[in-house]
Design brief:
The chain is α+β, with helices and mostly antiparallel strands and about 800 residues long. Among the domains are: about 160 residues, DNA Polymerase, chain B, domain 1 (DNA Polymerase, Chain A, domain 1, 2-Layer Sandwich), CATH 3.30.342; about 200 residues, Nucleotidyltransferase, domain 5; about 140 residues, B family DNA polymerase, thumb domain (Topoisomerase I, Chain A, domain 4, Orthogonal Bundle). Helix content is about 35%, strand content about 25%. It is built from 23 helices and 30 strands. The strands form seven sheets. It has a seven-stranded antiparallel beta sheet, covered by helices on one side. Strands 13-12-11-14-16-15 form a six-stranded mixed beta sheet, with helices on both faces. The longest helix has 25 residues. It binds a DNA duplex (12 and 16 nucleotides) through helix 12, helix 15 and helix 21.
Length: about 800
Amino acid sequence: MRWKGDVAIITGRYLSADESTIMELWSRARNGQSVLLRVHGVRPWFEITPHGRWKDGENHPNLPETYEEITEVRGPEMKWTYLGEKPVWKVFVKQPFMVPKIRQELSGKWTILSGDIPFVNRFFLDGDLSMHVTVDGEVCESEHPVDVCIDISMDEVKHCEPFPAPFKIFSFDLETSIAHDTILCAAAVIEDMGTGERERHTFSEDEQTILENLTKLVRETDPDIITGYNIDNFDMGRILDRANFVSGNDKEKKIRTLGWGRVSTDEQGRRRDTLFPTRGTSRAWNMAGRCVMDAWWQARQALRPQRETLKFVSTLLFPESEDMQKMDVDASKMDEEWKNRPEEVIEYCLRDAELPLDIMHKIQAFRRKEAVAAVAKVSLDTSANGTTSQLIDSLVIRMADRTGIGVPLTGSAERKEGQIEGGYVHDVEAGLHRWVAILDFKSMYPSIMIGKNICYTTRIDDMLSDAFSPEDYEKSPTGAKFCHDGIRRGMVPKLLEDLMSQRDVHKAGMRNASDEAQRSYHDQMQYAVKILMNSFYGVFASGFYRFTHRQLGESITAWARQNIKTIIQKLGDEGQHVVYSDTDSIFVKTPVDGVTDPRQAMIEFGHSTAERFSEKSAELEFETGMSVFFSHGAKKRYVGQVVWPEEKMMIKGYETQRTDSFRYLTEGMKNIFKHVLADDSEAAINLAIETISAVKKGDVPVRDLIMSKSCKGRWDRKRAKWDFSQDYANPDAMIQVRAARAIIDKGLPFTPGMKIAYIVTNAKNRPMEIKPWLEEDPVAEYDGQFYADRLATAFGRVTEAFDWSAKELLAGNRQTSLFSF
DNA sequence: CAGGTATCCTAC
DNA sequence: TAAGGTAGGATACCTG
């Protein structure tokens, strides 16, 4: 029997059979079924080429045909490398896991190419496939817990236009004993994104039964994605630990308590690894067939919230929700709560299993990752949990394979020493400036890469410059040479151009969409394309990417600096006033002498200036027009009243933007800025003084003084405690570490990397005394002098422009300064 | 109390 | 031993 249809690939692995290698790809079909694709006929290989430059007729080392693991050596084929065209042999091996060893043994005589690409990637690379594919294969028996399993070959898979897959999501939460680390209860909410239906389950039996029932539920409901709040660092690890503990050496029991992977429980040996969730050294968890997405991680990336607790993020996203107003269980007294009111704890647990689902939908985490997967042509798991370089690899390697370019190993190039020089930041003039037009370069770094044909494959190495004449290439301001596209068109410029036009297609799709679903789809896709385009520069300027060289990054930024400095110079020569500039933007004052409508004049000036200085592949755009711009004179810190294209206040860099600040400061500063922009410095100063005086007197709710900083740290297995000394030179000198320690001492969970909230209670002592902020047990007192000083410093920087120092603000009058003269 | 170091977070 | 970049402001702590 055949099965035909469109599927979205979640993740994959390979299996070594006797004479072949099988790829297993787990997917969710458009029709809602979970489908396991067993791909046959793909053989593992890598490539070899002699070291150094190649001269025709030269001898090469003996081909490695005697190795038992090698089944065939094919070639040679001439391929491009940074040392010129070279003969490349394709070496087939019996199994993918044999590659590292052989690679190692051959590396003395041969340069290895394509030798570090995970085997499953070959599906996407060789077939030029993406996350969404159409398959037509023979249904086969499978012991794995899926709806359908089919056997296919690569020619039974075709590209499919992306579609919103009806994922099944499993969101869960555990409540655990502080005294014994045991699991007290658990809850899970399973959502079918196809129908929108949810089912809810709670578990409150003995620990082993809870683990078994959770595992059973995972296997029965067959989810594609596992989520929950902070599961990466807490719940997944706890499940692993407790399942191992209750199972001891009983393998069957371990399978019943921990067998979450989408594979048969009868798997033997190595294959069984993926039945159990694992987390190597990476951030993300791995298990066969499913993708683990932590709602905390997604929310922090999408929202950059001031604090990162589930309650804070939920209230931020759902301020109206009644659920959040309900009395909470005190997590710091969980054992007591569990003993006294288990029903409430279970209800609380269920709520905390459901909220992550709501959060993930609100920030559109699933659809965004799916769109990135579609654009970068990777699986959902790679999109959700992979690195930026894996996304870029996916596009670049498939192009290299199709255009005869050798793929070097990651780490094969010389490591970049020191930093490369970055963008140019112009000094900002302190004070108020009126009618300022902001001109921006459109996609500056991608445009330069396209325009100057910058790529690993177009760079002319000094060793090869004898083979080129000066008209073959362009020299960057740093002296690096990149050949013209007539000689060789770079892969990166080509890919970026393709992405740019893809984005245009989706933007048009958005405009022409007939319904919201279609508009949203195109929006997700255009956004994913934008993200990906902007990732190129960073990856190619990094020190360890396989297709990079420090000249690439250096040249891109050098050309960027040259472009922007030239324009600033020209504007200055014309008598225009450049107020500020950062990397790809120029802030210019509109000449308004004798003008009746300055706003209109600014719009016209903005457009005409942008047009005058635009060049091919260095296109300037008039993005924003401000009636007033203010800065106290520090780069990357300014505020403006935007009047075009819309009315809004724009603040950059200042404390209002910072998540390690506190609400009372950010709100106060915003209001001060309003007065400043309204040209009412007196009101600004009065407000500053009042605000400072109120906090000093202790009149401010402590809740408005919560500060928050992220805290690193790692679990020390041997000593069974959190270790901060790996991440901090002097851990006790760090406020957030002291706050984290206080939380840990209370028996509350600590998540490395998560922001820790605290109140300063006494800054006279050094290091200053702080108390962690816990919703269940709010801090009552604060150090008024400390907060007053902090406000005065921040406000003072602004009011200094109107001749009021921080000291004067604190004193509430100008007497101090008068006397000091 | 000035100056140096470590760290956080932001703008681009 | 895992991996997009640099420029920049600001704070807390420590030292002499």
